[in-house]
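re: ur question from yesterday

yeah so i grabbed the chain u mentioned. its 523 aa long if i counted rite. heres the sequnce exactly as i have it in my notes:
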Amino acid sequence: MSATTGTIAQAAPTGVEPPARGRESRAGAVLALARFEARELLLQIPILVFLALYVGFTGWTLFSGGEGMDDFPVLQDVDRSTQEAPILLGIALFVGVNRAVLRSRRQSTDRHFDVLPMEAWRRTVAHALSVLPFVAITALVVGFQFTWSALKPGAVGHGSPAELAVGPLVILLSGVLGVLLARLIPVGFIAPPFVIGAYALTAMVSASTQGTHWVRWLGPVVSDQGADPFPSELLGRPAAWHALYLTGLAVLLLCLAVLVSGGRTRLVQAMTVVALAVTAVGVVGQSPDEPASLIAARTKASATPEKVQTCVRHGRSTYCAYPEWAGRTADWAEAVDRIQSRAGGSAGGRPLTVRQVIDARYGLQSDAAIPASTTPGAVTVGTRWGGNRLPEFAVGVASVLVAGDQNRAGEMCDARVVTTMWLALSTQPDPMKSLRSVRLDDSIEGSAIALTPTEPVSMSAQQTTVVRELLQKPHYGVAAKVKAHWTELTSAKTSTARVAELLGVPAGGKGTAADKESGSCGE
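ran it thru and got these structure tokens back, copy pasting raw so excuse formatting
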């Protein structure tokens, strides 16, 4: 009898263990439901398609292998470029999660949940947790995208972890918002109209406020595109405050969804208060306009770049760059040396000053033109490099060698235009492709504007024909004639027809009106 009693006593519950096991089992049930819902989300065709498009497009941009400015990334722009692509995936996930929460209502199985041990608010948490795998995938894609750019030999600048966090946070916010909307408005087809309405409302607010700083930063993504890359210290973006705002907002929406679902525990109420405070702090932190110190720093870097730049010598010339771009001066020097090696007269040995210039005074969204320098031998280069920027820089260098300074280069015509364009483009790996790339209309026939970092060069149809004929001839033969006739080829009194005669190519039709009247285009 005692043995039996002892056995029964050992098996009797203590009154403490079952609740602990109950909490563990309920947490395990929430996680199990979250895993199930995550798999269900992945099987939804719209989400699967947009996820594949997001990953595929990102991979294509990284591995396409085409030449361009992506070969010389600026990391403080790369981190921002990771933010917009996840938006479409976020919209698909918003709709998918909303439908998943309302699945039981569509299938008329809501009443069966009343006999289950899992409360409605726990199911709400599980639906929110089902978004986390997509947040992790987005974080991996963003991290890989940035790392791929950062490891390139031509990469410059510094990325921001807060900027990189925006993409994953947008995915999290989209999923949680889908859960909250389903709990507030349990209607099956509410998500698509909500997306359209949100877009229309955003457009109306943006138009009515005319891009006010604090209003723009209430949105999930603020790309600030348009201007050439700025040095990191001149960005002035409240990225850390914005990431804090998005984090607090996501947690706040989740707490609201749990409260609406009946989870009015003290912990949830406390988390709601904390999340509201974090969101408010983020909003306050990101709302102030650009400080006076930032505006002064941008003005200094734009108007007097020599005060903030690092200058180094390569050969006979001096190269000045903002500190983050100092390693790129060797690329500029290589381009300058190739061009000068084909110039004649004193231009072949003329010391140049290549200076990096930006106009940051009008902010990150303003594509302000860079004024031409009147200093003899001064060559301007921007903060972008690669792609079309290479032949444009070459034209800028050649125009200074031919005209003397950038201001007079914008007034060149006739012989000087032909000499400049051949000198610049014959040094490129594919001269004809560079001719097309450097012209505003992407043509190789007729009149057009050829771009440089500052003042463009105007090309007539006849000049275009002569340049095209020259680029199709072996460069060493043309280079010898250019050096032999350098003085005449760089004179404003020499006509296009005379250039063609000196260099041994067809004149390409009738000359310009100036040629007919005086045989020159004047100074």
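noticed a couple things. The radius of gyration is 32 Å. also The chain has a mean pLDDT of 88.
anyway ttyl
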